[in-house]
Design a protein that fits this description.
Layout: H1 15-24, E1 32-40, H2 45-57, E2 62-67, E3 71-73, E4 86-95, H3 99-112, E5 127-133, H4 154-163, E6 168-169, E7 173-174, H5 175-182, E8 187-189
Antiparallel strand pairs: 1-4, 1-5, 2-4, 3-4, 3-8, 6-7
Helix pairs in contact: 4-5
The structure holds adenosine-5'-triphosphate and 2-amino-6-hydroxymethyl-7,8-dihydro-3H-pteridin-4-one.
């Protein structure tokens, strides 16, 4: 039936309202891949890593596609012997969230596991970093993409290479080459530990 001018349900929506609603819709129509690095060096490290993966899997618009093997790693960037060792892993996700929303979600997951931000590179129950988001390159300090130190970190490159041997770190080249150049010192496989995909 053709609506008439007097039908109140066909009032035109003002352009300003359309623009506001569109701006508030922060999902993308196309899912993108992203690489997340997880690290924990306080508390029950494996349990926390699994909890973070499950929490990420509970995120609307995000699907965890692969979870890497677990590595026990020497704390990077601090005096040796000043912190407990880390468990590290990498998750590959597909998401319709834009990068800023993915970072918000990563921070919410950290908060859920009582991460306390005190000093730079301080010990933590959980750290969730965005290593790469599709092929986005951004120097924004709030969200630098790819992660500005990923290419220097075997604790990121080794698990990433395990789940995606052909991976490329945007702007830096093949992960396999970066890992070969860096070496695996301080990064030990923990084949006795396993992380699951979210149920
Ligand atoms: N790719 C990224 N992933 C996560 N956080 C990022 C990224 N780029 C910039 N940041 C910013 O870095 C800030 C500090 O992050 P965080 O406390 O996790 O650092 P860190 O884990 O101690 O050190 P690092 O950044 O070297 O891993 C965050 O609040 C975030 O805004
Ligand atoms: N081994 C290891 N060292 C670190 C880690 C980490 O996850 N693993 N994270 C840091 C800040 O992101 C600083 N140092």
């Amino acid at each position: 039936m053709k609506p008439t001018q007097s039908d109140p349900t066909v009032q035109p929506v003002p352009a300003s309202v359309v623009a506001t609603v569109d701006a508030a819709d922060t999902t993308l129509s196309n899912p993108r891949w992203a690489v997340l690095a997880l690290g924990a060096n306080l508390g029950n490290r494996l349990e926390t890593l699994q909890g973070a993966i499950d929490a990420l899997g509970d995120t609307p618009g995000l699907r965890v596609k692969a979870v890497s093997p677990v590595y026990e790693t020497a704390p990077w960037g601090v005096e040796p012997g000043t912190q407990p060792s880390y468990l590290n892993a990498v998750a590959l996700v597909r998401t319709t969230l834009p990068p800023s929303s993915l970072l918000e979600r990563a921070h919410a997951v950290e908060e859920a596991f009582h991460r306390v931000r005190e000093e730079r590179w301080g010990a933590r129950t959980i750290d969730v970093d965005i290593i790469a988001y599709a092929d986005v390159v951004s120097e924004d300090p709030v969200l630098t993409l790819p992660h500005p130190r990923a290419h220097q970190r075997a604790f990121v490159l080794a698990p990433w290479h395990d789940v995606d041997p052909d991976a490329q770190l945007p702007g830096h080249g093949p992960v396999a080459d970066l890992l070969a150049a860096l070496g695996r010192e301080g990064v030990t496989s923990r084949a006795d530990l396993e992380l699951r995909l979210p149920e």
